[in-house]
């Protein structure tokens, strides 16, 4: 390991400790249910313990090859500026191979520092396999759509895992009541207790985790120490030769003896990786950017991984001497004296692990929405310090309802495990496919490395996937149904969004029509700023002509505002605004494109309005261009003071000079002041433009937003009519409107209705 110059060992170990509560909570609770799910296939155990040794060998090599080798030492290096998951990999591919599916992308977006920072190798020379592969992907729209669907599939399966994992983890933890309570009482307690914990977990989501997040790491550390200590105790007491099971020879013996039942049991084995779908996707939800790669590697390699191996070895040692009680699960290997404390710590650990996957689910839905693949939703930022801690009310209650339905419907960990296993392994296989492309297109490595990565890890995951699919009727159908539902929603929304944007592009207002606007046509310019929201990054939207046709007046200053997302996690404040003129300078029409990364939080209306006007003022000061295509990047600024000062010059005629001051604060805390007199003898074009902007700002800001009704064209196929007229229309009516998404004041908003 090489330490960065700014990192010290103390910092690294502190981050490694903190990462345990954020990243590994779910993975650490997998010993609660792995053996129980594995041996639910009625496998007969011989006195040689070859079946138990075979299961332990499978667990050991699966944990070693997939979480340790694949994710910690390979996939972790492909993070997108500290963000992980299928969308992070897809974002990397979009930037390196021009695969961006966003309709309003621009060449100017490629000048963002977020695009340039991740180029870790020079461009592949022409004629190489990498350059040819890039050309093929860029030329064929079908391949680009396949990659998008693949990324969406991974996202949908993570959402499915966000429903299944809390149910499985919590129910497995409270199953210890079976041994801790007498007689049949546990049957009347387990299910209600599990439901109460789930309801409390989701009901407290809107408070966020920043107030109790400091407890997450100690809880996970305590749990890992407990299972490691129990494992070591069981090894020393029951079977000190269990280490022999680490030989891959026992995998062959296990599959040869158990045959079909052993094949089916692989669905239980893969649960030892539960949490990896969350970790590789979004369990780094809040602050992987605050955790270095080194701290993540140290935490897993030197603490989580050894603790899990000891836990599984200890359970195997105990079970090798107790063949008749395999169905009871984890708690049978726990001594009676410590069973209640272990039960309490297990429940706390499952709550921490469930919290990570729930917040990860919120995060990935936010990413999908930002990239135009999910309807606009209500986002609540539960912490002002950590941008990743968000809460989505609609999704939260939907997850709760589905979690309770899974818990009450299945009532056993076997079918829950079958469902969760399919979701986990699907996300892993999607990650493997995308990662193989990243190796070639982003890292510019030889195709041999990509093929080797795909064959080694893809073959292992395909075996597990096939074993999981065979349990379709025993619970594995659940993630398929859930992911199919969310996939249909995402595809319908993305398709409708693209078609709506295409309609806007085809019906743009011509510049000749703009130049012809004036008093001769009865057009009146009223005082104030008109802020017209549009998805277009060039041209004038049709809603403007529709507005002027029905209401022949518009504001003295017009700003065509486009708020869009770009395929990078964060956009630097200095690169937020892209400003330019629309038409001649004298028309006082501007275009302002505000760019956000898919993990950025948008500003509230007051702060955003001030920054927008400040960016226009900075643009006027910085350029004299009249060209609509000459867009200038303006640092995020805010108008902090607009005041009038009246000063007499001592003359008898009482002439008063009115001076207005605009003060812009840029991110580096520099203050730029420019004073413009009201009526100078010879006012320059820049001063006149600044004067008019200031007067318009004093007159107030009106927000003009298009309210579109989308319908399929006549002659469209039945599928398109269903998608547009029913599905997309339903989603639009039940999602946040542009007014709500921008948090605009209702009293200053004018909606312009149009049929698309």
Automatic annotation (TrEMBL):
A GO CC term attached to the entry: plasma membrane
Chief place where the protein resides: membrane
Bilayer topology term: Multi-pass membrane protein
TM annotation in the entry: 52-73, 146-168, 188-207, 214-236, 298-319, 340-365, 390-410, 422-441, 447-467, 476-496
Signal sequence residues: none
Keywords associated with the record: Ion transport, Membrane, Potassium, Potassium transport, Transmembrane, Transmembrane helix, Transport
GO molecular function list: potassium ion transmembrane transporter activity
Domain named K+ potassium transporter C-terminal: residues: 528-756
Subcellular location: Cell membrane; Membrane
All residue ranges annotated as the K+ potassium transporter integral membrane domain in the record: 15-514
Assigned protein family: Belongs to the HAK/KUP transporter (TC 2.A.72.3) family.
NCBIfam families: kup
PANTHER family associated with the record: OSMOTIC STRESS POTASSIUM TRANSPORTER (PTHR30540), POTASSIUM TRANSPORTER 6 (PTHR30540:SF98)
Function according to Swiss-Prot or TrEMBL: Potassium transporter.
Protein name as annotated: Potassium transporter
């Amino acid at each position: 390991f090489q330490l960065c110059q700014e990192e010290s060992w103390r910092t690294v170990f502190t981050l490694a400790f903190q990462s345990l509560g954020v990243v590994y909570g779910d993975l650490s609770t997998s010993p609660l249910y792995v053996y129980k799910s594995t041996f639910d296939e009625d496998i007969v155990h011989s006195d040689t313990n070859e079946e138990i040794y075979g299961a332990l060998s499978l667990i050991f090599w699966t944990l070693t090859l997939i979480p340790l080798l694949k994710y910690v030492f390979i996939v972790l290096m492909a993070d997108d500026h500290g963000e992980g998951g299928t969308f992070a990999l897809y974002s990397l591919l979009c930037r390196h191979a021009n695969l961006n599916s966003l309709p309003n992308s621009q060449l100017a977006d490629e000048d963002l520092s977020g695009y340039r920072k991740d180029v870790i190798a020079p461009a592949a020379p022409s004629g190489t396999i990498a350059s040819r592969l890039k050309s093929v992907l860029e030329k064929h729209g079908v391949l680009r759509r396949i990659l998008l669907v693949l990324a969406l599939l991974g996202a949908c399966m993570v959402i499915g895992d966000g429903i299944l994992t809390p149910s499985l983890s919590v129910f497995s933890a409270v199953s210890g009541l079976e041994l801790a309570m007498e007689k049949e009482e546990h049957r009347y307690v387990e299910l209600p207790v599990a439901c109460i914990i789930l309801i409390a977990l989701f009901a407290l989501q809107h408070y966020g985790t920043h107030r109790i997040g400091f407890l997450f790491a100690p809880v996970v550390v305590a749990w890992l120490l407990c299972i490691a200590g129990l494992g070591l105790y069981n090894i020393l007491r029951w079977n000190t030769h269990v280490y022999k099971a680490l030989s891959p020879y026992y995998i062959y013996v296990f599959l040869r003896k158990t045959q079909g039942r052993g094949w089916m049991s692989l669905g239980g084995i893969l649960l030892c990786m539960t949490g990896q779908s969350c970790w590789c996707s979004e369990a780094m939800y809040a602050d992987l950017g605050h955790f270095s790669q080194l701290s993540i590697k140290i935490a897993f390699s030197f603490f989580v991984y050894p603790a899990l191996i000891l836990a599984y070895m200890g359970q195997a040692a105990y079970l090798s001497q107790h063949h008749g009680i395999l169905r009871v699960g984890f708690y049978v290997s726990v001594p009676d004296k410590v069973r209640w404390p272990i039960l309490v710590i297990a429940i706390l650990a499952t709550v921490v692990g469930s919290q990570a996957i729930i917040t990860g689910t919120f995060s990935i839905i936010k990413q999908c929405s930002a990239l135009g693949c999910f309807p606009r939703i209500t986002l609540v930022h539960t912490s002002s310090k950590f941008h990743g801690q968000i809460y989505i009310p609609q999704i939260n209650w939907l997850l709760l309802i589905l979690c309770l339905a899974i818990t009450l419907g299945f009532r056993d960990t076997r079918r829950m495990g079958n469902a969760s296993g399919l979701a986990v392994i699907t996300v892993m296989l999607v990650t493997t496919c995308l990662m193989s492309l990243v190796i070639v297109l982003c890292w510019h490595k030889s195709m041999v490395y990509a093929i080797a990565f795909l064959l080694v890890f893809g073959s292992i995951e395909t075996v597990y996937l096939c074993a999981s699919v065979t349990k379709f009727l025993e619970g594995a159908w659940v993630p398929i149904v859930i992911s199919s539902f969310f996939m249909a929603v995402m595809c319908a929304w993305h398709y409708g969004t693209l078609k709506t944007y295409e309609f806007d592009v085809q019906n743009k207002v011509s510049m000749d029509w703009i130049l012809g606007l004036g008093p001769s046509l009865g057009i009146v310019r009223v005082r104030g700023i008109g802020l017209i929201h549009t998805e277009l990054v060039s041209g004038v939207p049709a809603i403007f002509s529709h507005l002027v046709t029905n209401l022949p007046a518009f504001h003295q200053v017009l700003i065509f505002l486009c708020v869009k997302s770009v395929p990078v996690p964060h956009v630097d404040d200095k690169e937020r605004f892209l400003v330019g003129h629309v038409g001649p300078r004298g028309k006082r029409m501007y275009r302002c494109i505000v760019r956000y990364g898919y993990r950025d939080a948008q500003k509230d209306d007051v702060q955003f309005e001030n920054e927008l006007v400040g960016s226009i003022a900075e643009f006027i000061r910085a350029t004299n261009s009249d060209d609509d295509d000459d867009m200038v990047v303006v640092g995020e600024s805010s108008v902090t003071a607009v005041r009038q000062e009246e000063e007499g010059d001592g003359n008898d005629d009482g002439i008063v000079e009115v001076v207005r001051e605009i003060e812009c604060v840029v991110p580096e805390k520099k203050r730029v002041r420019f004073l413009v007199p009201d009526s100078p003898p010879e006012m320059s074009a820049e001063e006149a433009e600044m004067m008019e902007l200031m007067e318009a700002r004093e007159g107030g800001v009106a927000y003009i937003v298009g309210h579109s009704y989308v319908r399929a064209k006549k002659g469209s196929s039945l599928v398109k009519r269903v998608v547009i007229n029913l599905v997309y229309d339903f989603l639009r009516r039940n999602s946040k409107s542009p007014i709500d998404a921008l948090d605009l004041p209702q009293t200053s908003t004018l909606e312009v209705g149009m049929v698309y």
